[in-house]
Amino acid sequence: MAFTITVDPAPHPLGHRFAVLAASEAGWMGGDSAYAIDLAGGLRRLWLFSDTMLTGGQWVNNCVVVEDIARGRLRTVLGGTAAEPDALVSPSRRIGSDGLSRWLWTGHGVAIDNPGVPVDQHRVWVFYQEYQATVPDEQKGEWDFAWARTILVELSLSGLRVLSRTPIVDGTGVQWGAAVHRDGDELLVYGVADEGERGKHLLLAATSATSPGSRWRYRTAEGTWSPRPENAARLLTGVSNEFSVLPLPANGGWLLVTSDTTQPFGTWPIVAYQAAHPAGPWTGPQLVFEPPENDGTRYAYNPTFAHLAGDRYLMAYNVNATYEEVTADRAIYRPRFRQARLRPKG
In sequence order, what are the residues at sequence separation of 6 or more whose Cβ sits closer than 8 angstroms to the Cβ of residue 336? Predict the structure, then answer.
């Protein structure tokens, strides 16, 4: 079943709530990634952020903002202390063996908090991407970094404490966790092979939803699953480093929402692909939205989709500019939120 996607022209009210949180200077004041994890009962949602701006010119590499949906409240969860805040999750070694800095930016994740699981076993599994500087810190510019590896982090849902870390070492060079979706007892893990100017390619693996650190299977070019990571196939080219894949209503197949990275950087539109199965084949792209922020040194990137109710979805996308611009105008470096509606064609 094919669907059309329409985006409301007016911003979603959640953007105003994040602006209020920023104005309070009580935590999050800006950030990118904006991955949503819905919790059981529909009363709370976790927003996963990468680089996060705090008050007083402070920055941390990741945090979580907890949304109380019913009350419209947002609360920032960080690491460190109130006097010296830190990233919620830091790498096991902040300085690599080469003497260069390392840090973690968030990927997507999933909550294991259904009523059949005891509360003390409620977990959040999040894929973090470990990056490293390519030059010493005193020489580092805005783009002097490179991806190193994916780390799967287990967090307690109560308190968001780190319980375990599992490096994903499979030799593929894939940034796993660009999007995830729980499909029953199985966790679908989408990854990106980022080859820069040669393109960003979509791959898919599957594992256990409750213990996702082992026994992975990889989607092959033949449409089968293999335990051998070298058999993982590239299923689509032109995705962004962060995106969303989710099932469509009424057993209508699957939807993938991404920036179109086949276009020049700084002009990326938000597009969608549809498929009958979560592994594709994907048809598209279908234009969803042209971010008005794509202008001059400002650019939009890495959209995500979260289901609200019925045919309504919440679309978030990131906006950035030069470091000088985002520190001079803190309103730039915040996600934009829009409501989208999906309706069957015909």
Answer: 11, 15, 291, 293, 300, 316, 317, 319
